[in-house]
Amino acid sequence: MKTFYLLLMIGLGINAASAQNITFNGCHNLFDDQNYVLINTGTDTFNKKIYITTPVDGNQACGGLGTCEFKIQWNNTLTRWEFLADSGNGDFVDPYLIFYNSTGNNAATNPPSNSVGTWVENTAVTENACGGNLSPSNSTMTGDVHNSTLAVNDLSSGKIQLFPNPVADFITIQGVEEARNVVITNAVGQQVLKTDFKNQLNVSQLQKGIYFLKIFDSKGKTYNLKFIKK
Prior knowledge:
This protein has helices at residues 2-8, 123-126, 152-157, and strands at residues 21-26, 36-43, 49-52, 70-75, 80-85, 96-101, 120-121, 139-143, 161-163, 170-174, 179-186, 191-196, 200-202, 209-217, 222-229.
């Protein structure tokens, strides 16, 4: 099974990414340890950008493991970004879902980076070969990706504040109205803390690393922030 997917799923080029490209390196049990480039080929009907390896002719080099194509696109039905691998024909008629992210800033026209929300590994396809969800510790995803899950208005107005960052013991959150709950996950998407909202949270028990903090308010809105535990 592993060999089958190795032959089908790699191919993002080896050139440096421009502003409209995404460079990916990760999931090394399936993909070669090298940079692969996906190029923005346009937008869909929901004004979301589409990224794909080129040329799409079933002849994309896969580091000597065969031929295949990759694609990142928005799935509006499931409200998530998807990282797809072609079945080997270069047509994406029946591609394989490798990762998906539904917790980034869904208002953005481009996909989240590997440090925003959670890029979940679809283990039903990969058979755990990627070693878990994408994170800065096991992959790189740079270029035309967004790096915050906060709404644009929240960022530009400075409404939400989280400090100090990096943090040692207590982290303070300001600017969220009618907040109810807080969930903190680590870099690989594991929940490490869930509690009622407080303006000051004790995170002294967390290990050093990158964490994602999600706040839920009484109106059903969520706010996502990132912090570093030192």
